[in-house]
Amino acid sequence: MLDLALKGSKRYWGWLVLLLVIIGAGFGAYVVQAVEGLTITGLSRDVSWGFYIAQLTFLVGVAASAVMLVLPYYLHHYKTFGRITILGEFLAIGAVTMCLLFVIVDLGKPERLMNVILHPTPNSVLFWDMVVLNVYLFLNLIIGWCTLECERKDVPPPAWVKPLIYLSIPWAVSIHTVTAFLYAGLPGRGFWLTAIMAPRFLVSAFAAGPAVLILLSMLVRKISKFDPGKEAIQTLSKIVTYCIILHLFFFGLECFTVFYSNMPSHMSHIIYLYFGYHGFNTMVPFMWTALICGLTAIGMLIVPKWRQNEKLLAIACVLVFICTYIDKGMGMMAGGFVPNPLHEITEYLPTGLELTISAGVYALGILIVTVLYKVALTIKEERGE
Length: 385
Description:
The chain is mostly helical. It contains 15 helices and no strands. It has helices at residues 10-36, 51-64, 67-75, 85-106, 113-118, 125-153, 161-184, 197-223, 230-260, 264-275, 284-301, 304-307, 310-328, 330-337, 352-382. The longest helix is centred in the middle third of the chain and has 31 residues, at 230-260.
C-alpha cells in the first residue's frame, strides 16, 4: 500500500520536501553532536536530562492517547470512532518513533543504545521503558496496517489481530506508566517523588493526545475528501475536557500536599518554577503561560455551546497542547533538577544545536505520520467514506 504515498499534489510533495530539508538540518546538527559530544547541549552535571527527554515525556503521552479510540471502538463497539481510529493508531506510530529517536540523540553516542540490549538489566526501569515503547510501536504498526489493508480489500481482519488489539490497550497505559516510574523512582528528586506521578502523566496524555488528534482530524477534513465525523470529534472533545481538568486538579493536589505539609525540599521546586528561586526565574513565564492556557482551555471546553463550535474547539485544543507541552516537558525537567538536592541552582536552556536536532526528529515523525495518513486517506476516499 505504500505506493499510494507516491501519488499526490504539488502541495503534498512540497510539504515532504520541506520536511526532508528540516530532517537534513537536524541530521547535520546531530553529526556535530556525535563528533563533539553532549558538550554542545545546555546539559550540565546538575541537569543531566534536558530538552530531548522533555520531548520524550510529552510524546509518550501523544502515543498513548490512541487507546482513547481503540478501547471504545473495539471493546465497547462505539462505531462512531470507526472512521477515526486508524488516524489515532498511525499518530501513535509517529509519536513512538520520535520518542525512540529522542532517547538515541540524548545518549550522545548511538552505540550506547546497544548496552541496553547486550547487557539487559530487568531491575532497571529504563530497560522496561525500552521494551514497552518498542512493543507498542510494533503493535500499532501491525494492527493499523493489517486492518487498513483488510478494509481496502473489503474483508474482515484475520482472527489473530484481535488479541493484539486487546493487548495494545493495557500496553498504551504501560508506556506512560513506566515512563513516569523513571522519574518517581529517583528518591533524590523531591519534585518527582510522588505516587501520583503516573496518574498525572496519564491524564495529561489523554488531554494532549486527543487534542492533537482533533486538530489533525480538522486538518484532514479541510485538505481531503475524508470526514472523520463531527460526532467523533465532539466525543474526543469531552475526553479532552475531563482530562485537562484532572491534569490541573492533580497539580493542585501536589501543591496542597507539599505546602500544607511544609516540606522545604519539595516546595523549592514549585517555587522555582512559578515564582523564581533566589533570583533565578527562567521558567517562570513559561509555567504561568502553561497554567493560564490550561485554565482558559477549561473555560472554553466546559461550556457545551462553545465546545460544539469547532473554531473555538480548535483554539481550546491548541491551548491544551501548549499547557501540557510546557508543563509535562521542560516544566517537568526543570522542576526535577532545579534546585539540586544541595539547593544549588544550575539553570538550563537548550542550545541552538539541541533545538535543530529536535526539529529534525519532529520533522521525521511528522513525515512518517504524513505518509501513513496519505495511505489511509487514499483508501478511505476510494471506499467513498
